[in-house]
Amino acid sequence: MDIDEATLVERCRGGDELAWEWLVRRCQGRVYGLAYHYLGSVEDARDVAQEAFVRVYRQLGTFEGDRFMAWLLRITRNLCIDQLRRRRTRPPAEDVQADADGDAAPRDTAPSPEQAWLDDARTRLVHQALQRLDEVNREVILLKDIQGLTLGEIAGMLGLPLGTVKSRAHRARLELARQVLAIDPSYGGASRAGGER
User: What is the predicted pLDDT for the residue at 51?
Assistant: First the structure.
């Protein structure tokens, strides 16, 4: 049985722990994905995702509106920005090396080794290209194309006029495609990576 987010939120407000579990399961992939794209660290992304759900649970009574996911992603984004600020002011105590596969999040299905390698290579290529974008373009791509927020939600989140966000989204996609080609000129799907991600 598929229950919509609004119903789950109302049930959570009423103290239904099972509804909270369903809500977390439904949203955790997107929250973790956004945190990972901002922070680039599996461990930091997990910590931020956990903190985001703790905050949402505590503040559920203050949520107003019908776009729960946008609210949850706004909280996640703000936590990521706080984490990035702390990183800049306080260097890490020690460097920890990631394992060979980058300690990627577990997958629900097991693709063939060749398909997994191709998928990982594309993901790494797009992630590397994203890192070359300026902060504004990278954030617009993350929020719109990866997290699926509307331009209006992004405008509200960033405190910018809708027209500005529209033009930045277009420029960001073009710049992402250019960066993918700069990294790998032989990549035939570069325009698609900038347009469909």
Answer: 95
